[in-house]
Amino acid sequence: MIRIITHTRLAALQLDVERARARTREVQEGADRAFAGHTRSAQRLTAQLKTARREAKVARADALDLQWALDNTKAQLAKAHDQAAEQATRIEALNEPVTDASMMLLLHYGEPHSLHPDQSAAYAYAATLGAPLNGWGPTDERPAAEVPWRCVPFIYDAARDHFRSVTAPAVEPSGGAL
Asked: The whole model's pTM is what?
């Protein structure tokens, strides 16, 4: 089939081709702009993602540091609480009225000679009277009247307002009588 095209028809077709090419260029330019915008958005989002990941890593490290500090503080608080409870118990014990006060009685040939706050004070006093400072040991079977110096524990009973002897063993200087 043969078609005869006129000059007017050819001019109209060429005009349509030019319009189509112009529209193709417009669409291509729009697609290029959209692609460039998409690429820029993807690059910006990728950079934001990297930044967010770095910030998240720092935040995780900070959270771990804070968790350690919190755990450490909790442990210190528990220790301080235990110490405070222990001190409160000690304070209560110290605030209780004293019912007993132990002392040491120094006997000279079985007769009471002097009272001392502790054993070392009794030994030191006996030393000023000629007893040896060191060498005190457990008592033997001899009666107290036969021993020059003997140190026995005594307890003051505040409820009864008197001293009583304790069944703990007495001590006397060893190494001969004085």
From this structure: 0.38
